[in-house]
C-alpha cells in the first residue's frame, strides 16, 4: 500500500517571491532607485571623482553645472558631486551596520525572552521598556554625549536606540512559535533548548526579522543624518549626507543648492528603501500572503450566459438548485470546486451533503447566497431558486435582505462566528433589527424568546453574556437562535456540530431536529459523518470531487449504498459495538479539481472500475424512487439480489 | 501492582495556576488532572476517552515529560519518570514518544522531512551518517511513504501523509511506549482508516505499547484492549474495552455511548441544556458529574466516589456510588 502519488505541488501554482515583488510597481521603482544609489556609492573609488575633502577657496559656492563641477561646490570650494557620492557611501554604511547590529541584539533578546517566558521574559522586556521610556533622540544624544561625537559613536547610539523595536517584534512572534507543537516535537526528538531556539524557532522568525529590517533601515539612515546634522556624527572634513545638510543650512538662502542636493539624496534614498521595504513586507508577511490584500466583493460574481432563464421550480421544494457550477481561479488555473450540482430542499426537510474535505460541499452551500469570495471564486453556471425566486439574477440589495432572514447560515466554529466584543443579546437584537422595524425593547423581548426557543435557561440573563463566557454548545445554540431570528425558510448548516463534544453534539442535533419540524424550516446540512447524517437527515447526497455521486433517502443509502465510493466511505469508519470489524481504507487520494479526468473521478481508486468508467462523463442516473447514482457499475443490483 | 506493568501511574495530578500574587492574594488554580492512577501493560493499547477539557492531553504530556505533575508518581519500567524527565529528557524520549493531534502543526514548516526525521536519530541515538540513512529508509517503509519524499517540505503533504511522518518520527528512536494524542481526529475518514491500519501493523511489528487518546468512542473501541474514561480531570471508569463500552457502569460513560452518532441510528438522546461541565475554577464538592447525572443522590453531592472494582469483575473499575448494573 505504498503511496505512490506525489504530494500536491502547491508551490508551483504560486508565483515565487521575487516575481511577487516585481508585480508591485512602487516596490520595483524603489528597488531600481535603491540599486542605482548603492551601485554608484559602491563604485565611488572607480569613478574619477575629485578629492571630496580638497578645499579650493577660489572656486567656492559655484552653482551646479559649473565647469568641472557638475553639482557645483560648497562654501570651501569642495566638489559637491564627489562629496555627495562619498557621503552617501558613509550614510549607507552607517545605516546598514546600525540596522544589522540592532537586528542582531534585538532579535536575540526577543528570541530568548519569547522562548524562555516567565521571569527571563519579564526581566528582559522590562529592561527594553526602560530603554523605550526615553525619547529616542534624547537617548541617542545622551549616548553620543557620553561617548563623544564621532561617526562610530553615532552608529552605536542609533543601534542601541533601535534594539527595543526589534526585541518587541521578535519576542511576540517567538512567544507564539514556542508554544507550537513542532517545538514540543523537537524537544522529544532530543534537541536542547539552544538547538530548538536557533534551529527550529529562528528559521520561522527570519522573515519577520527581514521585514523589520527593511522597514527600519530608512529610518536609521535618517537618524544618522540627524545626528550628523547636529554635528554629533561625521566630523569634518568627512562628508556624510547629514553633515552636508548641516553645513549648507547656514547659507540656505544665498546658495540653496549646497543643502538642497544632499536633502534630495536623503529623500530619494529613504523613499526608495521604504517603498522596497513595504513591498518586501507584503510579499513575506504570512498574514498578508493568505489573502488579506485581496478584497473580496460583497457577493460572488456570477458568469453571464450560462444561466438557464426559465426553470419551472419543483413544487414541493423551498430551495431548488440546478446544475450549480462554482470555480476558483488562481494564476492561470481554474479549480472546478463544484461541477454541476442539483439539489432541492422541501419545507421542514433536512438534506445532508456528505463528503470529505475538498469535495466541494461547503462551496456548494456558500454559492447559494453568494458567499464564496470573489476574487478568486465565481459561479460559472446554474440556477438557484428560493421559493421560485432566482437568487443568481436577484439584485445585491435583494440578496442582502434575504441573507439572515429567508436563508440563514450556521457555521462550524461559533466562537469565530460571534463577535467577541458584543454581548450575544446585542448581536441577536442587531440580527432582528436588520430585517424588521422593531424598537429596541421589542427586539430584546424577541431575542429572549429566541433563546427560550433554543432551550437556553434563564434567557434574560444570558442575553447579557459575552460569547467567551458561554460553552461551545451554548454558543452554537445562540448561532441557531440567530439563524431562526427572521422567519427563516432554509437554514444552511455547515458542519455545525463538528467542533463540539459528543454529548453536546447530541443535544444540538436533537435541538436542530426538533426546531426544523416546529418551524417547518428546510435544512441543508453539511457534514463528513454518516453517524450525524443518520441522526438528523431525511435525504442524503454524497459528494466527490465537486459532484454528487449518489443521492437518496438516508435509510436507503446507508442500508444499500449503490456507488462504490459511498460504500467505501461507510466501511472505513469504525462503528461502535463492532470492534472486530476490519477498517477498509480507501487507497489513493481524491483528484485535484483543476485537473479532473473526463470520466468518473473516483475510477482510479475504485475496485469495480472498468475501461468504460474513464471514457466519458457519467450522468446521474435514476435508481428507483428518489434515488440517483453516478456510476456505470453500481453495487445496488447485487445488494438487492443477495 | 501488575508484574508486567510497563507504565504505572499513582495519584498523578497537575494544577495550573495557583500560588500567590506579588501582593499576597491567591491566584486561581485549575486542577487539570486529579488523582489519576492506572497501569499500562506491555504490548497493550490503552484507550483514553473524554471530552475536551477533561485532562486527557495534560495526562499525555506528563507521561512523555513535556509537563511535570504537581503530585503523584509516574513510574516507567521501574524508573521514576518525574525525577528523570527534569534531569534528562533524552533518556526518557528514547523510551516514550508522542504523536501529535495536528500533523501539519507538529512539523516545522521550514525543515525537510529528512531533517525532521534525522533529529531523533542524531540527538537520541547518536547514529552516524550511514546508519541514519539506513534507518530513514526503514522508517519511511514502515509508514508506507516513498523514500523520495524525504527531501520535501511539510506543506507539500496531505494531512494523512503528514501524520504518517509524525508517526515515523515517534518510531525513529525505537521507543517502547507511544502516546497517540488524537492522532486521527484531524484527518478525513478515508485517511483515518489508513492511519489506523498502519498503527495496528506497527504495533505487532515493533512490539509497541500504545496509549491512544481520543474523543471518538468508535475509534477507541476499534483499537483498544482496555479503555479509560476521564471526566473533569479524574478517571471515572477503566476496564477491558469490550466490557466498558458494552456494559458501562459509570453514568457518564453511559451518556457518552448514547450520544455517539452511528450510521443507522436515528434517535440521539437529548439532555437538558443547563447541564454542563462544572466551572473548573470553582469545582463542586462531591462527584463532578452529579449535576448531569440521572442517578445522583445526596451522597454524590458531598463525597467524591472512589474508583472501585465493580462487583463480579476484578479488572473493571468505576468511580460511582450508584453504578449501572452489569447486564
From TrEMBL, chain A:
Family label = Belongs to the ABC transporter superfamily. Belongs to the binding-protein-dependent transport system permease family.
Q: Is Chloroplast found in the keyword set?
A: no
The record's keywords, sorted A to Z, are:
ATP-binding, Cell inner membrane, Cell membrane, Membrane, Nucleotide-binding, Translocase, Transmembrane, Transmembrane helix, Transport
Q: Where is the ABC transmembrane type-1 domain?
A: 88-277
GO BP terms, alphabetized: peptide transport; transmembrane transport
- Domain ABC transporter intervals: 319-570
Database matches in SMART domains: AAA
How is it placed in the membrane, per its record? Answer: Peripheral membrane protein; Multi-pass membrane protein
CDD domains per record: ABC_NikE_OppD_transporters, TM_PBP2
**Any one cellular component term from GO for this entry?**
plasma membrane
Top-down, what is the taxonomic lineage of the species of origin? Bacteria, Pseudomonadati, Pseudomonadota, Alphaproteobacteria, Hyphomicrobiales
Q: Name its cellular compartments.
A: Cell inner membrane; Cell membrane
* GO MF, any single term: ATP hydrolysis activity
Q: Which PANTHER family match?
A: ATPASE AAA-TYPE CORE DOMAIN-CONTAINING PROTEIN, OLIGOPEPTIDE TRANSPORT ATP-BINDING PROTEIN APPD
Q: Name one Pfam family in it.
A: OppC_N
Q: What is this protein called?
A: Peptide ABC transporter permease
UniProtKB/TrEMBL annotation, chain B:
Q: Which organism is it from?
A: Rhodobium orientis
What are the UniProt keywords, alphabetically?
A: ATP-binding, Nucleotide-binding, Transport
Source domain of life: Bacteria
Q: What SUPFAM superfamilies has UniProt attached to this entry? A: P-loop containing nucleoside triphosphate hydrolases
Listed PROSITE patterns: ABC_TRANSPORTER_1 (PS00211), ABC_TRANSPORTER_2 (PS50893)
Report how it sits in the membrane. Answer: Peripheral membrane protein
Gene Ontology biological process terms in this record:
peptide transport; transmembrane transport
Q: Where is the signal peptide?
A: none
Looking up PANTHER family in the UniProt record yields: D,D-DIPEPTIDE TRANSPORT ATP-BINDING PROTEIN DDPF-RELATED, TRANSPORT ATP-BINDING PROTEIN
- The ABC transporter domain is annotated at 7-257
> SMART domains annotated for this entry?
AAA
The terms under GO molecular function for this entry are: ATP binding; ATP hydrolysis activity
Q: This protein is called what?
A: Peptide ABC transporter ATP-binding protein
One term under GO cellular component = plasma membrane
Under the heading InterPro entries, the entry gives: AAA+_ATPase, ABC_transp_ATP-bind, ABC_transporter-like_ATP-bd, ABC_transporter-like_CS, Oligopep_ABC_C, P-loop_NTPase
Q: Which Pfam families does this chain map to? A: ABC_tran, oligo_HPY
Compartments, record wording? Cell inner membrane
- Family assignment? Belongs to the ABC transporter superfamily.
Q: Where is the major localization of this protein?
A: membrane
